[in-house]
Amino acid sequence: MCAEEDRRAAAKTCMKCEISMCVEHLQPHLTTPVLLLSHPLTEPMAPGAEGLGGTKCPQHGKLLEYYCLDDLTSVCVSCAIEDQHRLHNMKTLPKAHAELVEKIAEGERAVAAKRQESEELGKWEQSKREEVSQYSLRLIDAVSKLRDMTLNRVQSSVSARMGCIVTGGSSIQAAMGEKDTFRFLQLYSQVNQDMERAKSVDLRKGLETGQERDKLSQELQEVGAEMMDQATKLCGSVLMFVDPENQRETPGNANAIFEPRTLVHGMSLSADLRKAFYSHAQQSGTNNQCTLLIKDANSTSPLHSYKIAVSEYYDWTIGFCEHESTLAQGIVYALCIKDDQLSYLKNNPLDKQLGAIGIPRHIPGVVRPKTVEVCWNPQDFSLSFFTCSSRHYQRRLIVSIDVFEEKSTSVSPLDIKGFTLQNKSP
């Protein structure tokens, strides 16, 4: 609005008048009530599609006075009351501006929190990367050690034996070619040694029988065990790196031990009471069933979870039971396997809802587990059995049993954890 020779910088742009004004020419818009209400002002805008020309609706040619929060676009009054926006969430421009500024402020706070979390994520990633690298290097070292020990010792043994045969053959050829009697007899002693040594060479594959082979075999077993341990650690570390939410360390219980209730002939426990063995098959017609209790060696508190590896050569029952319970009487909640058929057992005479007491219920579609994890949840009185196949695993639920708790009795159905082992051999 300024004269050409006295043009001053624009202070505001009137969206309705579609003109930009300096401070002096802006005063009527700031002091006249009608203009204040009906002429929205904005920051100075240049003419054009993105400037003054962009303040009007391209469809209706009217001033863009509202903002559609559903479609996130500015609209005119005709769009707001007649066309596709009439049922949408409409706001005046100042109101929409205030609400969206608050929304952005909330987003900024959320992004700031994410930024802090991302720093923790970066530290975690770096830590796990170093862990994976360390396990990888240790595994490579173990593999290299195993390879070098094997190749070098066997190669040295084979080379020595082949060299002995070559030496014996050369000595024999030299003696056979010697025509002088005196020189032949002078050579014979060494030739005979070489010949006998060549004849006695052990040509079996691998190292020669003896202490050297036994010692190397022992060393290789130790290094091999170390290699497998490092491979397991590397595999677990990689799985935790990729999918930490669904991968976790098998809980188990380092202090869990067996306490024998009944042992049969041929049954024994390891020195640390953490392994049970049958030394030989039981005789036909004899009792070959033993019962072991699982307890914490360092505490009288009950175990809420434990993990047990089971052999494929035995039938077993694993779970929770009352002190004096047997599989037929008393309180027992357990997972059972008999003749490779998996079942679960709910045996509680206090629970009148059970119906047939002590009858195993078959679990279809589940293969015989090698490792069973038992978890007791005291909050909802449930006993869950899981199967897992390795140290780092994605465990799979076998069955969850609701445990009956009789409030009127002092007997807890979870006094002792039980493990019954039965040799499948007659």
Structure description:
By secondary structure, this protein is α+β, with helices and mostly antiparallel strands. The chain has 3 domains: 1-55, no CATH class; 159-245, no CATH class; 256-423, SPRY domain (Jelly Rolls), CATH 2.60.120.920. It has helices at residues 23-31, 33-38, 77-81, 93-177, 181-199, 211-242, and strands at 12-14, 19-21, 41-42, 66-68, 73-75, 90-92, 248-249, 256-262, 267-269, 276-278, 289-296, 305-309, 314-321, 332-338, 341-347, 361-362, 371-377, 382-387, 392-393, 396-402, 416-423. 17% of the residues are buried.
Q: What key attributes describe this structure?
A:
426 residues, alpha+beta, Jelly Rolls
What secondary-structure arrangement, pairings included, does this model have?
Blueprint: E1 12-14, E2 19-21, H1 23-31, H2 33-38, E3 41-42, E4 66-68, E5 73-75, H3 77-81, E6 90-92, H4 93-177, H5 181-199, H6 211-242, E7 248-249, E8 256-262, E9 267-269, E10 276-278, E11 289-296, E12 305-309, E13 314-321, E14 332-338, E15 341-347, E16 361-362, E17 371-377, E18 382-387, E19 392-393, E20 396-402, E21 416-423
Antiparallel strand pairs: 1-2, 1-3, 4-5, 4-6, 7-19, 8-11, 9-10, 11-21, 12-17, 13-14, 13-21, 14-15, 15-16, 17-18, 18-20
